[in-house]
Amino acid sequence: MELLNASLIDWSRAQFAMTAMYHWLFVPLTLGLGVIMAIMETMYVRTGNEQWKKTAKFWMVIFGINFAIGVATGIILEFQFGTNWSNYSWFVGDIFGAPLAIEASLAFFMEATFISIMFFGWKRVGKKAHLAATWLTVLGATLSALWILIANAWMQYPVGMEFNPDTTRNEMINFWQIALSPVAINKFFHTVLSCWILGGVFVVGVSAWYFIKKRDIEFARQSMKVAAVFGLVASLLTAWTGHGSAYQVAQKQPMKLAVMEGLYEGSHGEGLIAVAIPNPDKKSYNDGIEPYIFDIKIPKALSLMGYNDFDAFVPGIKDIVEGGYELPEGGKALSFTEKQTKGRTAIQALADYKIAKKAGNETEAARFKEVLRENYAYFGYGYLETPEQLIPNIPMVFWAFHIMVYLGGYFILLFTAVLFFLYRKNLESKKWFLWTCVWSIPLAYIAGQAGWIVAEMGRQPWTIQDVLPVQAAVSAISTNSVIITFFLFLILFTALLIAEIRIMLNQIRKGPGSH
To answer: In terms of Cα–Cα distance, which of 418, 238, 394, 370 is closest to 316?
Structure first.
């Protein structure tokens, strides 16, 4: 694995990020709207009320439009692991490929099987059989997300593997350790629940538009009730899993937590930023410039969030780079220089091992293999040159994290207000609030994108935490080819997005009566 020029790395990262962000415009609505429409069909089967059937069928059409277009971006995203990140695929393909293969063969198969019954089986199967097909379609989509998120969580917290110096590959030794990783489980629930929020906001917003236009009021009221209750429960659960995510990040990726808060120097009983403006003059972790123009903190809340202890020490960026602080599990944290030395020792030991094996010197090969094993945890640091490479883009991660948190609080208030006005039976007269609901739809998408920026930008420079940085994972291909395909994909995905929006708006204008 050779270090390649920065231009290729940057364009490869940009292409993958662009594809992922477009893909995440389609996935959340699929997961959130799927559950909502299944709840509505359940109400139809239980009550026999044809209005519920009419409501469920309308949202099912919107689901289908979004689902179909989302598949295309997902396929291209997975192909990029082979085209743009072939070193990564070689290095960990035995592990990373397993959950993706399960996702394709099990979850995607379920979706493909039952979605046809869901759309075309209304007059061909009984009510309960159709309802089962709807729920199984939703389950298939959710399981698809589960296995993809397990793969992503493993990149954040690599477990259940062992490095084989003979093949220069990581090999899986414990599948269940990967599948049941605490990072994976928490990431799954937090991500899926955030998709439920988007589904709730989307249905509330579209229903509000019908109220504004004074048409299909009964349909809009039914939809809004289900979506608001569903969204409020999802919002509260997302806040709870957000705490779990922060705890996992603090334990496994302390640099990410420090960057999320713009924390340069840690302390015991560290506060959580409530409101702050980062100082644009702050350029380095050790330049002595104050990190904020002003800030308001919730006392000791970051220590509680990250370590479940009001007085726990939370390391800042400077602490992580320089090391020397006490670790929760005991011992002192290593500095960047110490980790870099261990990483380079591991890389050299691997080279020496191969030479010894080729020469048939088994004694020396065994000695170098042991040196490699002792230092492998810091293998990736051997590819880094300076401490600054270890630090993600602080302003981007900081603002993405806080925008996500602020919007999460906003959605709790929004769903609560919707239910309050529905209970008071005066929602129709609150035109300002109805328009607020409509314009909240893009805010839900922004919150989802911000969450992924925190997750992925926050772990840079790593493709695999501590083991493989991006410069050692990228394919040795022409930069021009990446640039060309970047713009081709950008045009394609933008066209798909515009097509989806136009088709969905057309269906919304037609209303539930057209189905």
So the answer is: 394
Ramachandran quadrant class, 200 (left: phi over 0; alpha: psi -120 to 50; beta: rest)? alpha
SS3 content of the chain, % helix, strand, coil (to 5): 75, 5, 20
- Residue 184 CA to residue 176 CA, distance in Å, equals 11
Distance in angstroms (rounded) separating the CA atoms of residues 336 and 315 = 14
Q: Are 507 and 62 in contact (CB under 8 A)?
A: yes
| CA dihedral over 108, 114, 116, 119, signed as positive or negative | negative
| Residue 324: DSSP 8-state | -
Higher pLDDT, 76 or 190: 190
Please compute the mean of the pLDDT values over residues 471-494 and round it to a whole number. Answer: 90
Burial environment of residue 476 by CB neighbours within 10 A (0 to 12, 13 to 18, 19 or more): exposed
What's the rounded Cα separation, in Å, for the pair 187 and 181?
10
**CA 190 – CA 182 distance, rounded (Å):** 12
Mean of all residue pLDDT scores within the chain: 90
Q: What is the mean pLDDT of residues 178-204?
A: 95
Q: Residue 413: which residues within 8 A CB-CB, separation 6 or more?
A: none
Q: What are the CA-CA distances from residue 183 to residues 109, 140, 146, 189, 344 (Å)? A: 26, 22, 12, 10, 28
191: amino acid identity, one letter? T
How many residues are recorded in the chain? 515
The residue to which tokens 């379920």 are assigned: 110
pTM of model > 0.85: yes
Domain boundaries, the chain: 6-253+392-507, 259-322, 336-383
Q: How many CB atoms lie within 10 A of CB 455?
A: 23
Report phi then psi at 161, rounded to 5: -135, 165
Question: At CA 75, angle to CA 69 and CA 76, rounded to 5?
Answer: 100
Distance CA 274, CA 255 (A): 20
pLDDT at residue number 514: 61
CA distance 393 to 416: 35
pLDDT at residue number 1? 42
pLDDT per position as a tens digit, 101-156: 888 777 777 777 888 888 888 888 889 999 999 999 999 889 989 999 999 999 99
Within 123-216, where are the H helices? 127-156, 175-179, 182-213
Residue 222 has pLDDT above 70, yes or no: yes
CA-CA distance, 118 to 440, in Å (whole number)?
Answer: 29
pLDDT value at position 269?
92
Q: Distance between CA atoms of 272 and 261, rounded to whole angstroms?
A: 7
